[in-house]
């Protein structure tokens, strides 16, 4: 890899990269709604001469570059979606959407990489294929909207990479990577991150006059608040090595002050380092919620929806990425820790060698009202250079480095079918509190 020949291929498109970053920042869209963003990037890619495969009924697309020599296929992502933070000064005034996680910079970097790969000499010495993918719906937001898409048969999974894998778009991919924008001063890599299951607890009570006849009601809100206290008391039983997180919100708790609430809804993730840990702790949380519902005579529906798999980065792949990072900047941080955040790159690391390192350039608070890109050179241009360098390190010399990574990386699942079988085990809905005619109560957990 000769960085003196490679990096000018990105530099030639610096102004266009910055323009893409600003355009996407000003037009934020949340998951499975990113039609304007996808259309904008499609035009940029097609103007470069790429032929695209569009997802069709959801936003997103991919394209392939064939070097003309046999070898592995490497997939690189850019994420289309934004978060929601209505208090951000540049949030969309209607939706509250804003790119306060830096996905717009990732897309600009992906465009910069795509532009560089069209330059003469960009593929010299490489073998195999390169897939570039603009993927929707990484941020796990607006669960009811996504569930409506799923029930309508438009999607099978709430997260974009998982959905695209299910559709077969990545069936012949050998390895994958994505560089996420971060608050770090330079490049950064970690061991991985936690996975989660999305949980919705719906308490069903009985409405009555709050002043005149509260004794005739069953207060769903009180049942929910008691359940939250009970679940909080379980936190000390979570093992530190499992990196558990439970962060519920009360999304519904009544409609009128004068009426005993007959419905209350609590939503949360149960996060953990492994699927096993998530399953184990979720059972305890279910028990706390069901017991609290029973204490008030309420019924409880527990809805679980598959979230994201834990991310475990391929160590030999990270070694190559670190070499590429150092070719761009001396500021590289390497950590063996796991993040307690989640990403659907966990889907990719579950079935193939994959990595999810970071490029800095952002400032403020991730997902917060003060987030912005302070250094677009690092977040976009340097990120594109690092990705281009990584591709060359992987696919030059008859893809010796890529083939070594593929041979040495142990992944949790040998097939996507085995992965989806375990993921789908989290797709359940249970009526958790049953009242029998003899006065007994059955908790179904």
Describe what you observe in this structure.
This protein is an alpha/beta fold. It folds into two domains: 3-193 and 310-412, 3-Layer(aba) Sandwich (Aminopeptidase), CATH 3.40.630; 195-308 and 425-443, Alpha-Beta Plaits (2-Layer Sandwich), CATH 3.30.70. The protein is built from 13 helices and 25 strands. The strands form seven sheets. It has a six-stranded mixed beta sheet with strand order 1-2-6-3-7-19, with helices on both faces.
What would the average pLDDT be, to the nearest integer? 97
Q: At the third CATH level, what is the topology name of the largest domain?
A: Aminopeptidase
The separation of the N and C termini measures 56 Å
Sheet with most strands: strand arrangement:
1-2-6-3-7-19
What share of residues are in beta strands?
15-25%
CATH class of the largest domain: Alpha Beta
Give a count of the beta strands, DSSP E runs of length 2 or more.
25
Number of helices: 13
Biggest sheet layout:
6 strands, mixed
Instruction: Give the name of the CATH architecture of the largest domain.
Output: 3-Layer(aba) Sandwich
Tell me roughly what share of residues is in helical segments.
Answer: 25-40%
Uncertain residue segments: none
List the helices and strands and how they pair.
Elements: H1 3-11, H2 14-25, H3 35-47, E1 53-54, E2 61-66, E3 73-79, E4 83-84, E5 97-98, H4 103-117, E6 129-135, H5 143-151, H6 160-166, E7 175-177, E8 180-181, E9 187-189, E10 192-193, E11 195-204, H7 220-232, E12 245-246, E13 249-252, E14 263-272, H8 275-296, E15 299-308, E16 311-312, H9 315-328, E17 332-334, E18 338-339, H10 345-351, E19 354-355, E20 358-359, E21 362-363, E22 372-373, H11 376-395, H12 400-408, H13 416-424, E23 428-431, E24 433-435, E25 441-443
Parallel strand pairs: 3-6, 3-7, 7-19, 8-20, 9-17, 10-18
Antiparallel strand pairs: 1-2, 2-6, 4-5, 9-20, 10-16, 11-14, 11-15, 12-14, 13-14, 15-23, 21-22, 24-25
Helix pairs in contact: 1-4, 1-11, 2-4, 2-11, 4-11, 7-8, 9-11
């Amino acid at each position: 890899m000769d960085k003196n020949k490679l990096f000018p291929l990105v530099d030639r498109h610096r102004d266009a990269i910055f323009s893409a970053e600003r355009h996407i920042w000003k037009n934020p869209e949340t998951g499975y709604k990113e039609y304007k963003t996808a259309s904008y990037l499609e035009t940029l890619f097609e103007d470069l001469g790429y032929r695209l495969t569009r997802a069709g009924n959801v936003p997103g697309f991919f394209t392939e570059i064939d070097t003309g020599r046999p070898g592995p296929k490497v997939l690189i992502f850019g994420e289309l979606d934004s978060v929601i933070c209505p208090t951000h000064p540049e949030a969309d005034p209607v939706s509250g959407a804003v790119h306060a996680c830096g996905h717009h910079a990732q897309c600009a970097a992906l465009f910069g990489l795509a532009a560089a790969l069209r330059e003469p000499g960009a593929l010299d010495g490489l073998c195999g294929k390169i897939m570039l993918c603009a993927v929707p719906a990484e941020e796990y937001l607006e669960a009811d909207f996504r569930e409506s898409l799923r029930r309508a048969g438009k999607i099978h999974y709430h997260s974009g990479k998982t959905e695209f894998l299910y559709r077969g778009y990545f069936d012949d991919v050998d390895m994958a990577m994505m560089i996420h924008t971060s608050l770090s001063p330079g490049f950064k890599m970690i061991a991985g991150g936690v996975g989660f299951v999305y949980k919705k607890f719906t308490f069903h009570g009985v409405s009555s006059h709050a002043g005149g006849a509260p004794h005739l009601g069953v207060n769903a809100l009180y049942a929910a608040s008691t359940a939250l206290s009970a679940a909080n008391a379980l936190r000390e039983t979570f093992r530190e090595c499992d990196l558990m997180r439970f962060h519920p919100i009360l999304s519904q708790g009544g409609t009128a002050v004068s009426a005993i609430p007959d419905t209350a809804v609590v939503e949360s993730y149960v996060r953990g380092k492994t699927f096993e840990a998530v399953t184990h702790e979720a059972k305890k949380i279910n028990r706390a919620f069901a017991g609290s519902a029973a204490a008030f005579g309420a019924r409880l529906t527990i809805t679980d929806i598959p979230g994201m798999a834990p991310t475990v980065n391929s160590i030999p792949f990270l070694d190559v990425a670190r070499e590429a990072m150092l070719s761009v900047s001396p500021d590289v941080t390497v950590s063996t820790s796991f993040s307690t955040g989640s990403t659907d790159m966990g889907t990719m690391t579950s079935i193939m060698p994959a990595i999810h390192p970071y490029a800095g350039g952002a400032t403020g608070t991730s997902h917060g009202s003060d987030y912005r890109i302070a250094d677009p050179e690092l977040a976009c241009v340097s990120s594109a250079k690092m990705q281009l360098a990584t591709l060359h390190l992987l696919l030059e010399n008859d893809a010796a480095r890529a083939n070594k990574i593929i041979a040495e990386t142990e992944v949790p699942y040998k097939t996507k079918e085995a992965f989806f079988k375990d993921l789908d085990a989290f797709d359940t809905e249970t009526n958790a509190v049953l009242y029998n005619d003899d006065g007994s109560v059955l908790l179904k957990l």
